[in-house]
Amino acid sequence: MQKRTEIRFILILTLLVLPVISCGRKNESTVSRTGYFFDTVVTLKLTAENADSLADEIFDMCAGYEDIFSAKKEGSELWEIDHRSSNTLQVSDEMAELIQRGLYYNELSGGAFSITSLPLSELWSVTSDDPHVPEGSLIAEALESVDDSRVHIEGNVLSFESDDTKIDLGAITKGYISMKICGFLKERGCTSACINLGGNVSLVGGREDGKEWNIGLQRPFAARGELLTSVKKKDGCVISAGCYERYFEADGRLYHHIMDPATGYPAESGLNMVTVIGDDDVEGDALSTVGMVLGKEAFTELLSENEIDVRVIFADNENEISYYPE
Amino acid sequence: MKHKIIQKNDILLISAILLAACFLAVFFFAKEDSTEGAFLEITADGELYGRYPLNEDAVIDINGTNVCEISNGHVSMIEADCADKSCVRMKEISFEGESIICLPNRIVLKITGCASAEEGVDTVAG
Amino acid sequence: MAISKSSARVAVLGVLGALAVIMGYVEYLIPVINTAIPGIRFGMANIVIVMVLYIFSYREALAVSVLRLIINALLFGNIFSILFSLSGTVLSLLVMCLLKKTGLFSMTGVSAAGGAFHNIGQILMAWAISGASSVLLYMPVLMTAGVLTGTFTGAAAYIVMRKLPWQES
């Protein structure tokens, strides 16, 4: 009889042990979702517990940020700022944070990056139904209100030195939001996520199989989906700015949406695209725009002088690739 | 203990199992030809408009503003009433996760459900 | 000389269980060629299991198998491998016991079938867990691999048994 008892003991022990072991089993799932915010497509690919509800929360966050940062949405915080009645305003923490960072990059880039260029971009209206080259006098007029030094932010108090200064955070808003999304995901214990916010790619960890994410770079002026090259990355961001995103052609010339605040015209730097690969989304967003305005030489000089720790991929007007650091 | 290490019955058994494996292989191979499980998912304005199997050629009208086509397991946008028509210019898609987007009309064509391309990228920046 | 004392039996089973674990570990060290599903190997430990099946009965074989699984899990700590191995082991033992009872097959054949069904069980479990029907596509390959490795482990067990003074039950 002892033999059977022994064996039964082993079996019962097994039955007891197994559930305990399987409790430790993680209940992770992977979801892929697509949403539509900021006039562009947002795609999420994330692996976590309750991935589905996390994705819902992220889309809610996006909707919330639209109410703050959308320049087009009437009634958003940014819209109220640009249609203000007083030159001193209270703004939200998020708005204050982003304006502060914007001003920082304005100073860093010597004015190549600007958060007050809205009059200029509205004038050029590259995405309107009837885009055309504006008259020189209108450009000069618009340029007069492009001056970041007229904007001051202290804590949550935003003040302007003149009535016609308008804020445009479009160049760094996506970076800010994707940074917030990744922060949120990390807080919630997610270890693998790939966010694509209208072309800005932001990563948490690597893929669910542990490998690095394989991020393709859009080939400028080619069909969407055709790649120039690709990079492998874990964590951080891959952000591009390029003149192929929004442009119109007139008289055989190409006019794109990245304005050079110094000239009032679209930046002519010999580049089709600047891709910044780094760890800070807002920095990547800002720097990619700076790169497009300054051109490769001035930009790489700026980066090394300020010891900015990023990798950059340039595509010149012939789509030839070059790198920084070399 | 039997005398021999292996007997006739054993050989029959082993052969039977091998044969069953062969049949299964053939069966699966026949099924493989249809890109089973691969679908085109069309989203309009964030809502699911429809799911269409990739192995059936079709021309699909979406909300009267766009027309896409499934042909040979590939999907492309063939007509759109938007201003820039960049969606029509986009390369045809066929791998999991690939997508064609018409921003003005808020239409997203996406491939789901089939094995991803080996060297495929997870997403495209820019 | 048949082992009858229960304590001696338990001791022997313990030793055989340990042996199975060791053989599994040795096998683990050999680089795997075809990693379709985790845990698919030659099944050298099954030599022990088959022997236990023939010397004792299916209960002891089950006990030793489960013992081996637990120890493997504790030592190598992979939750999923337990589920896979368990499903494979249970199914293969079931089949082997039934085939043995018919008396029509020798150790080699029984083990061959056991090997095939071990893998079938694992695939079915992988399918159940992941819900991906594509996993089933591996069935033909793994069935073949299983039946071949099973043949060898069965033959190996036979050779070992012949040298031992134990009687088949």
Written description of the protein model:
- The complex is a heterotrimer of chains A (326), B (126) and C (169).
- Chain A has helices spanning 2-23, 51-69, 77-82, 93-108, 118-124, 136-144, 170-187, 281-294, 296-305, and strands at residues 28-37, 40-49, 88-90, 151-154, 157-160, 192-197, 200-205, 213-218, 227-233, 236-242, 247-250, 253-256, 271-278, 311-316, 321-324.
- In chain A, strands 1-2-6-7-10-13-14-15 form an eight-stranded antiparallel beta sheet. Chain A has a three-stranded antiparallel beta sheet with strand order 3-5-4, with helices on one face.
- Chain A is an alpha+beta fold and 326 residues long.
- In chain A, helix 7 runs antiparallel to helix 8 (281-294) and helix 8 packs across helix 9.
- The model of chain A is unreliable at 17-25 (pLDDT under 50).
- Chain A contains nine helices and 15 strands.
- Chain A is 37% helix and 27% strand.
- With 126 residues, chain B is an alpha+beta fold.
- Chain B has two domains: 1-33; 39-112, N-utilization substance G protein NusG, insert domain (mini-chromosome maintenance (MCM) complex, domain 2, Sandwich), CATH 2.60.320.10.
- In chain B, 23% of the residues lie in helices and 35% in strands.
- Chain B has helices at residues 8-32, 86-89, and strands spanning 39-44, 47-53, 58-62, 66-71, 74-80, 99-102, 107-112, 123-125.
- In chain B, a hairpin with a 2-residue loop joins strand 1 and strand 2.
- Chain B is elongated, with a radius of gyration of 23 Å.
- Chain B starts with 7 loop residues before the first helix and ends with a strand.
- The model of chain B has no long low-confidence stretch (mean pLDDT 78).
- Helices cover 75% and strands 0% of the residues of chain C.
- In chain C, helix 3 (58-76) packs antiparallel against helix 4 (79-102) and helix 5 packs antiparallel against helix 6 (139-163).
- Chain C has six helices and no strands.
- Chain C has a single domain (6-163), classed as Arp2/3 complex 21 kDa subunit ARPC3 (Orthogonal Bundle), CATH 1.10.1760.20.
- The longest helix of chain C is centred in the last third of the chain and has 25 residues, at 139-163.
- Chain C has 169 residues and is mainly alpha-helical.
- Classes of the chains: A alpha+beta (326), B alpha+beta (126), C mainly alpha (169).
- Chains A and B meet through strand 1, strand 2, strand 8 and strand 10 of A and strand 6, strand 7 and strand 8 of B.
- Strand 8 (213-218) of chain A pairs parallel with strand 8 of chain B, so a sheet runs across the interface.
